[in-house]
Amino acid sequence: xxxxxxELSFLPHSNNEVVLKNQFYDMLKVFEHIQGKxxxxxxxxxxxxxxxxxxxxxxxxxxxxxxxxxxxxxxILSLVKRPFGNDVxxxxxxxxxxxxxxxxxxGIIEKYCVGLAISYLKDKVAISLASNPCWCLPHITFKEIxxxxxxxxxxxxxxxxxxxxxDDVKVQKALMYAGELELIESPLSPGxxxxxxxxxxxxxxxxxxxxxxxxxxxxxxxxxxxxFNPNDINLIKEIYPDGKIELVLYWESAGYGMxxxxxxxxxxxxxxxxxxxxxxxxx
Length: 283
Fold this sequence. Notes:
Layout: E1 2-5, H1 17-38, E2 42-44, H2 60-65, H3 70-79, H4 85-89, E3 99-103, E4 108-112, H5 114-121, E5 125-127, E6 139-145, E7 152-160, H6 169-176, H7 203-213, E8 219-226, E9 236-239, E10 244-249, E11 256-262, H8 267-281
Parallel strand pairs: 1-2, 1-5, 5-7
Antiparallel strand pairs: 3-4, 3-6, 6-7, 8-11, 9-10, 10-11
């Protein structure tokens, strides 16, 4: 799962490279915060990010290589890797020249926007530097040219930046459900999948249920037993972005439960797998 860097958030250009570095690091802190919570693994940068002007006189690479602290320099460079924008777009690359951003108040006049366009075309969330209030909104509106007469329509990309509240329900939904849904399968046969359960009362019932659900191609293993949950009324107790799901046999009076590892790589995939399990194995 990926966020898309909004390269226009270098605008308006700052001539203070220390301020720019701090803004970039603040953005990385936001990314690191949501990595574990939502399962994001990568920031997609525009394919030409190295040549993008980040100050009035320096490109991205010139700016990074001028950072005196080697550790800070390496951390930024380590993020800039494939897939880049063109890799993600594939046959939609030629559509990029249809999208531009215009904001007279910020001094940004009809600038082509690669990151925002990718976010819109691929249903992903953008991530921006907090260099201007216009980049600190949960949604950014920009223009799409829709015909040869250069008529336009407004389009919107979800956006994350330092001052965007991660507690906002709309922001959370954008992060949880960004991108296309693609479920992968476990290469293991049911007999090769591990079952680890505590030697507690009800282990036999949990093990019997575990053997049944391990036939699901999206389940990798049974991690452990849960404490008893006699008051639960649903099979699915909790879903996590790293593919773990807590299940409760609510039809048993003691509420026996287990933690399973699925092939889910983010919250959206894990939620979809949980729904498959519910449809197949719920009472």
